[in-house]
């Protein structure tokens, strides 16, 4: 984790070489709010090549004037004052021009609460009334909100993220601009939208952010989430990430292809949604087939949808009491079956294992070696 003290050492070294430098953005905001700081950004009038002459660096975004500076075990993104060109892709400037002053750099940033500067001596420099917005707990764009969102539509999702994190209100003109321009989110890579949404859901004030998404109509442009968000906005507690997406896709009926989930998460949401739409309770066969975790998730979703009681304790107890939880638990191995009947391996082995599992789950067959051997001898002859 990067620390303010180490960041000040970077600033001190830059100033020793005759450059200006400040801590900027979220680290200043969180410092003033007395919240933990993680990533610390530094802005300077030194060009990337000049920064690289002073520190050990990595060229992480030279096109945008950024290098990563290594200070011991810590790293800091150091970016040259800049003015952004046109945002032709609605996400990144087509080009950047290095700015003459730090004020020019600040005024191209997203929100006033992220536009604060801090000197090596802890002095706050504020060109955008960010301190006032921190005091009154307001999320407001720097300059015209339509301009800021036209430059980078993802800033709309970031407004909700900051609301979820901080509990602040979103300024009226900022909110109105989001309502007007929400369709631009369709042009953003959905993996970026997903990242902001997941961060939002983990926020202490996620409920407030979800309600703002509905107020501005953003829920309507997020594929497959509209019905779920409308339901969740009235809940006392926002569900965790997996339950949120499972609930949304349970109501939607499928997982839209636009979402860039990993195969593991897509499979998880597909199966849990199917279970929620198919079962209100889970018998031994279902628990065995789909496992404890997915059955608990499906029940949690059905409980949130008022379709079922909260059966968490019962499901856990029923799973614990299953006579068998995997075909590996059978007291007769495949090699034993082959040896027992002196027959070549083949599909018959898996078929017979499946049948034995079914019978054991129904308590019609004991999971004991002698009983299973008798079952094999009987059914192979058939």
Automatic annotation (TrEMBL):
Q: Which Pfam families match?
A: PolyA_pol, PolyA_pol_RNAbd, tRNA_NucTran2_2
Tell me the Gene Ontology biological-process terms attached to this UniProt entry: tRNA processing
Molecular function per GO:
CCA tRNA nucleotidyltransferase activity; metal ion binding; nucleotide binding; tRNA binding
Q: Which cofactor does it need?
A: Mg(2+)
Record-linked PANTHER family: CCA TRNA NUCLEOTIDYLTRANSFERASE 1, MITOCHONDRIAL
UniProt lists the family membership as follows: Belongs to the tRNA nucleotidyltransferase/poly(A) polymerase family.
**What is the name listed in the Swiss-Prot or TrEMBL entry for this protein?**
CCA tRNA nucleotidyltransferase
């Amino acid at each position: 984790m990067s620390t303010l003290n180490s960041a000040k050492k970077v600033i001190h070294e830059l100033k020793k070489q005759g450059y200006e430098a400040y801590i900027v953005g979220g680290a200043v905001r969180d410092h003033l709010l007395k919240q933990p700081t993680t990533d610390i950004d530094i802005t300077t009038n030194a060009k990337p090549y000049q920064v690289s002459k002073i520190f050990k660096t990595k060229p992480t975004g030279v096109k945008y004037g950024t290098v990563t500076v290594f200070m011991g075990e810590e790293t800091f993104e150091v970016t040259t004052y800049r003015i952004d060109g046109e945002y032709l892709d609605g996400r990144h400037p087509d080009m950047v021009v290095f700015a003459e002053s730090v004020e020019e750099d600040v005024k191209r940033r997203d929100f006033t609460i992220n536009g604060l500067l801090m000197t090596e001596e802890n002095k706050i420099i504020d060109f955008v009334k960010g301190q006032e917005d921190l005091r009154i707990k307001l999320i407001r764009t720097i300059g015209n909100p339509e301009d800021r969102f036209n430059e980078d539509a993802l800033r709309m999702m970031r407004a909700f993220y900051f609301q979820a994190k901080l509990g602040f209100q979103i300024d009226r003109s900022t909110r109105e601009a989001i309502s007007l321009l929400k369709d631009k989110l369709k042009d953003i890579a959905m993996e970026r939208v997903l990242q902001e949404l997941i961060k939002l859901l983990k926020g202490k004030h996620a409920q407030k952010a979800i309600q703002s998404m509905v107020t501005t109509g953003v829920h309507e442009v997020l594929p497959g989430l509209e019905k779920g968000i409308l339901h969740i906005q009235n809940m006392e507690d926002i569900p965790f990430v997996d339950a949120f997406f499972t609930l949304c896709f349970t109501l939607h009926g499928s997982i839209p292809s636009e979402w860039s989930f990993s195969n593991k998460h897509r499979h998880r949401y597909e199966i849990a949604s199917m279970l929620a739409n198919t079962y209100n309770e889970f018998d031994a066969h279902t628990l065995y087939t789909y496992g404890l975790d997915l059955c608990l998730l499906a029940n949690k979703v059905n409980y949130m949808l008022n379709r079922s009681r909260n059966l968490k304790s019962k499901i856990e107890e029923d799973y614990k009491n299953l006579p068998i939880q995997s075909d590996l638990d059978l007291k007769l191995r495949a090699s034993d079956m082959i040896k027992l009947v002196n027959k070549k391996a083949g599909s018959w082995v898996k078929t017979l294992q499946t049948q034995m599992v079914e019978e054991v789950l129904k308590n019609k067959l004991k999971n004991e070696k002698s009983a299973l051997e008798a079952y094999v001898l009987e059914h192979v002859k058939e």
